[in-house]
Structures are given as C-alpha cells and as structure tokens.
C-alpha cells in the first residue's frame, strides 16, 4: 500500500483548518454530528487567552484548574528549556533520572510524613486508577481477596477511565451509560454539612452502618476531601473526614484522598486534607502539579501499603505507564511547586476568596439561583436549571472572560495571580450571565 502524503486531509486542513477541525476532532464531552462552538486560540500569557481574532479573555478556569501561576510563566518556561537540553523523555522501566528523584523528594516533604512512596502517572484519572489498584492488590497480598470493592460518597467525580468511573456518582454523574459494565461499588449519601458547626451524625451514619455490615469486602474508601469537583462543585465540613478516618481505622479499611483538583493551594490550604488534619493511606495528585504545562500526576502511599504489596506474590505493583516520570514533565513540576511555595500563595488565594465572595453576592438575589458558595480560589453559582451550553460560553466571551459552565453550575477556579480588577470583571460577568440564564429558560 502506497501512502500519499500530504493527502486529502492535509489539503482540507490547509484550505480551512477550522472546518477540518470541526469535522474530524472530538472535543471533551462533545458530539461529532452536533458540535458546539469552539474558540480558536492564538496564544496565552499571564491570566489571558488571546483568540485568533485578537480578542483577549480573562481565564476564569485556569485551563480546568491547572494553570495556577498563569500562562507562559518565565520560570516554568526556563525549566522546560533546561530539561530539553538533556532529555525530553526516557522510559522509567529499568532506568531512572535525577528530576524524578528530586520531585519525589519534594512531594514527600510537603505532604504528611506517612506518605513516603511515590508512583508517577500520566493524568489524574490514571492516578486514581493506580490508587484503586494499590488498594486491591494490597488486600490480595494480605490474603484477603474478598476486600475488592470501593466505598465512596455520592456527587463525587474521579475521572473518565474505567475504575475511576466506577466511583463517580452513578446517578447524577457523567457515566450513567456505562453503569451496567462498570465494577459495582458501594455508594452512600454525600455529607450536607458546610462547616463543622453544621455537623449532624446523620452525615456519617450510612457509612458507619455499611462498614459494620459490609466492611469485610471493602478495600478502601475513596473521596475528594472538602471539595467535590466535577460531580457538583460541593463543599462539605472537615469533621466528616475526621469521623470517616476513625471508621476506616476501626474496620481496617484503607483511605484514599483524590486531591487532583484540590491540591496545591486551591482551597486555601496546600492540600484540602489539611482542613481536617487527616492523612490518607493513598493520595492522588495532578492538575496543578505542573502548573498546567503538561500532563503529570502522582499517587503517594505509606509504608503499610507499599511494603504490603511488595513483600507478597508477585512482589511487584502491577502498573507501568509508558510516559511514567517523563523528565520534561517532572522538571517543570518541580519548578512549579517551588514557585508556589516561594510565593505568597496563601495571601493571594485569600484575596481571591474575598473578591469572589463580594463579587458573587448579587447572584444570591436572583430567583433562579439555588446557591452561591466560595472556598479559597473556587467560586460557584448553582442554578435551578441546566445552563445553556451554546449561549453561556458565548455570553462570557462577549464580556471578555472565559468561563465554561457545566450542568446547572457557573463556576470559576482562576489562576492565583489574578489581580483584583480582573477578578471584578470576572465576577461581574458571572452575575450578568447568571441573570441571563433565567431569561433563556423562557
């Protein structure tokens, strides 16, 4: 077979690349026959996304919560260039390199002491897959193969790969289509408390009862601490985590925290688990790990899990991504973490929190707004109806900002470097578009 290159596809691309893109490239959660509007980007810098037509948008999403330092940061650019001079990639099977060791040391230093072992992965979803496999393989190694199910709370989101989908909300989540073929896990009600003062024992009662009767088949409890992300942008109180940790200890169940979205300062603490003072057996990190430069994630665990897996047949952990510990990614991640720790990130996040509270307050007066909530650099407006995903992004672009709602939620997670005037423009746009959402229903 003779391949002609360039061929018809390339010629179509050169004629009209956007038409080619719409016809051939799938976007996240999109249809190839009913495409939504996408906006072509020319470049990014600081807090701005510059479109090909010259418009500059204030980015309220930090590119799905990852670009915490803003775009094209000179420190991160320099780290990438330096690493490129040595090597962009080398397999991690049978080989190793200093950048991976250095980042592992940094992650161990900044997380609680029991978390001493690091597995590098490709993405947040894969970090969750690794965590689930660690928990199940640990119990196999202990001669307890019946402990193979996961327990989690509703309204959670942990990624789009199969094991991760199995612990996402089975009813209100994005993966109902796969319900019949996903592994069956245990789900309990999500906590309703906002702060510890709101605590009711009813929030933990269902988990307590389930563990009492079915704990022998549970490998681990997995959840997002304090903030449930793409499952509904819900916040809940720290006491829930403390009560849960006690139950896990009583029933010898492993505890997994998914901090892919909340890690690296997003909630006002370096890690959301710090709000509760609870340390999991396994911790998943991602998104902001590289400052949004490239995909990288990490799963950390304690000696109990790491040695428990390693000291029993087959004696190895059964996972190995091709791009595990990619040198370019871990070098940029190291620079990103150092940049965060050396910056006044807590003060910046506190200023963003105050600005979001003030700027979003008028939304609470809108009749179709169900709730307004803010925690750290997270602002959420919950409507009583779905957001029009054709009109809403366009309305935000018209106002010079980039916000991508989902379901009935208009929310932002801006870069930590966002100045007060840009944040005010962002919240004004959210108030205006939230008001428009009521008119669109009609």
Write up what this structure looks like.
By secondary structure, the protein is an alpha/beta fold. 37% of the residues lie in helices and 16% in strands. It has two domains: 24-72 and 344-441, Aspartate Aminotransferase, domain 1 (Alpha-Beta Complex), CATH 3.90.1150; 75-341, Type I PLP-dependent aspartate aminotransferase-like (Major domain) (Aspartate Aminotransferase, domain 2, 3-Layer(aba) Sandwich), CATH 3.40.640.10. Strand 5 (149-153), helix 7 (162-166) and strand 6 (186-188) form a beta-alpha-beta unit. Helix 1 (8-15) crosses helix 2, helix 4 packs antiparallel against helix 11 and helix 5 packs parallel to helix 11. The longest helix is centred in the last third of the chain and has 22 residues, at 420-441. The chain is globular, with a radius of gyration of 22 Å.
Chart the SSEs and their pairings.
Layout: H1 8-15, H2 17-24, E1 41-45, E2 48-51, E3 56-59, H3 62-65, H4 74-86, H5 98-110, E4 117-121, H6 124-141, E5 149-153, H7 162-166, E6 186-188, H8 202-214, E7 218-223, E8 227-228, E9 234-235, H9 238-250, E10 254-258, E11 282-285, E12 297-301, H10 303-310, H11 327-341, H12 345-360, E13 369-375, E14 378-383, H13 391-398, E15 401-402, E16 409-412, H14 420-441
Parallel strand pairs: 3-15, 5-6, 5-7, 7-10, 10-11
Antiparallel strand pairs: 1-2, 2-3, 4-12, 8-9, 11-12, 13-14, 14-16
């Amino acid at each position: 077979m003779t391949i002609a290159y360039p061929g018809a596809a390339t010629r179509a691309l050169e004629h009209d690349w956007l038409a080619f893109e719409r016809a051939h490239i799938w976007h996240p959660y999109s249809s190839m026959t009913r495409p939504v509007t996408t906006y072509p980007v020319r470049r990014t810098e600081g807090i701005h996304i510059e479109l090909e037509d010259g418009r500059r948008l204030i980015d309220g999403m930090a590119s799905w919560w990852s670009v915490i330092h803003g775009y094209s940061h000179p420190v991160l650019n320099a780290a990438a260039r330096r690493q490129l001079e040595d090597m962009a990639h080398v397999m991690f099977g049978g080989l190793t390199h200093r950048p991976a060791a250095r980042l592992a040391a940094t992650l161990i230093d900044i997380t609680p002491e029991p978390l001493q072992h690091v597995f590098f992965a490709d993405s947040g979803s894969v970090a969750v897959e690794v965590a689930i496999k660690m928990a199940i393989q640990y119990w196999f190694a202990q001669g307890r193969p019946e402990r193979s199910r996961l327990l989690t709370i509703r309204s959670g989101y942990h990624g789009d790969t199969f094991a991760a989908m199995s612990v996402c909300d089975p009813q209100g989540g994005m993966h109902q289509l796969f319900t019949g073929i996903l592994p069956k896990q245990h789900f309990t009600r999500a906590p309703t408390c906002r702060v510890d003062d709101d605590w009711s024992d009813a929030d933990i009662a269902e988990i307590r009862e389930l563990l009492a009767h079915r704990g022998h088949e549970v490998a681990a409890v997995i959840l997002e601490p304090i903030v449930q992300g793409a499952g509904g942008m819900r916040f809940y109180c720290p006491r829930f985590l403390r009560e849960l940790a006690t139950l896990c200890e009583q029933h010898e169940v492993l505890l997994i925290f998914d901090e892919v979205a909340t890690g690296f300062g997003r909630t006002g603490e370096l890690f959301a688990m710090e709000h509760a003072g609870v340390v999991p057996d396994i911790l998943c990190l991602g998104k902001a790990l590289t400052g949004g430069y490239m995909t990288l994630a990490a799963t950390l665990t304690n000696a109990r899990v790491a040695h428990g897996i390693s000291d029993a047949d087959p004696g190895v952990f059964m996972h190995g991504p091709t791009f595990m510990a990619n040198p370019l990614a871990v070098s940029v991640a190291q620079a990103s973490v150092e940049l965060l720790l050396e910056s006044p990130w807590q003060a910046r996040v506190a200023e963003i929190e105050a600005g979001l509270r003030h700027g979003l307050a008028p939304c609470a007066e809108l009749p179709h707004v169900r709730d307004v909530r803010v925690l750290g650099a997270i602002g959420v407006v919950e409507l009583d109806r779905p957001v029009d995903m054709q009109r809403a992004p366009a309305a935000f672009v018209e106002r010079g900002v980039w916000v991508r709602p989902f379901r009935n939620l208009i929310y932002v997670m801006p870069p930590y470097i966002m100045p007060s005037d840009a944040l005010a423009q962002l919240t004004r746009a959210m108030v205006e578009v939230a008001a428009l959402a009521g008119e669109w229903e009609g």
